[in-house]
TrEMBL record:
Family matches, as InterPro entries: D-lyxose_isomer, EcSI_cupin, RmlC-like_jellyroll, RmlC_Cupin_sf
EC number: 5.3.1.15
Pfam families, per database record: Lyx_isomer
Family: Belongs to the D-lyxose ketol-isomerase family.
Keywords per UniProt: Carbohydrate metabolism, Isomerase, Manganese, Metal-binding, Plasmid
GO terms assigned for molecular function: isomerase activity
Protein's UniProt name: D-lyxose ketol-isomerase
Cofactor names: Mn(2+)
Catalytic activity: D-lyxose = D-xylulose
Length: 220
């Protein structure tokens, strides 16, 4: 993925935040000089995977298969007694931009549409990571719905609970979608299992300087 694509995605996400009057912590706007000046703070954030994240899942086609995220808060799963056991993310989903089928062994999450267009979510029983049969129902704002063989379309204000271990994908319709995620402690390096074998992170081609560092690029 080209750095210029990442920079464009980050600026687009910041524009969506401004449109929805949603503010981020000061460190969301740090450049490399700020990161180096606040080295201990930056290292603490990066250890918890906090900050910006842009990926095309190795597709080479970010507009069709990709995602921009900002992790606002998170703990360390292996230090659950001493750390926050929860996470909060913001997701910026383009029209027709798919996050492909993936599941989490450990993380239970709610996906909440904060504004913009419609978020489409689909599930498949294939590749279930749990024991026994996959659950046949999901809940949207607490109401039970059949999980499979349909597309669940969520408008602003609606939320869906993603069952642990169930493969799911999502994309936007009508307009870019501003999405939030609240979950158990998040580990994007060890708790993403893609049905199609995709990678979680992209290799970056440096065709221009970075606008913002991604969390996994912060020097340790």
């Amino acid at each position: 993925m080209k750095r210029s694509e990442i920079n464009t995605a980050l600026r687009s996400a910041e524009a969506m935040l401004a449109h929805h009057l949603w503010a981020l912590p000061d460190w969301a706007g740090w450049d490399m000089a700020d990161v180096l000046r606040h080295r201990d703070h930056s290292r603490w954030l990066a250890e918890r995977q906090l900050g910006w994240d842009v990926t095309d899942f190795g597709s080479g086609e970010f507009a069709a298969r990709g995602l921009t995220l900002f992790c606002v808060r998170n703990g360390l799963a292996h230090l659950s007694g001493e750390e926050r056991p929860y996470a909060e993310k913001l997701l910026f989903v383009g029209v027709g931009q798919e996050t492909p089928f993936h599941a989490h062994k450990h993380k239970l999450e709610d996906i909440i549409v904060r504004g913009g267009g419609t978020l489409c979510v689909a599930f498949t029983p294939e590749g279930y990571l749990g024991t026994g049969a996959p659950p046949q129902q999901i809940r949207i704002d607490g109401a039970a719905h059949p999980a499979f063989d349909r597309i669940h379309r969520l408008r602003a204000g609606q939320s869906i609970t993603i069952p642990r271990g169930v493969q799911h994908r999502f994309w936007g319709e009508e307009a870019p979608v501003f999405v939030a995620e609240v979950s158990q402690c998040n580990d994007d390096q060890g708790d993403n299992f893609f049905l199609g074998g995709q990678g979680r992170f992209s290799e970056v081609e440096e065709d221009e300087p970075p606008y913002r560092l991604l969390w996994n690029e912060v020097p340790q």
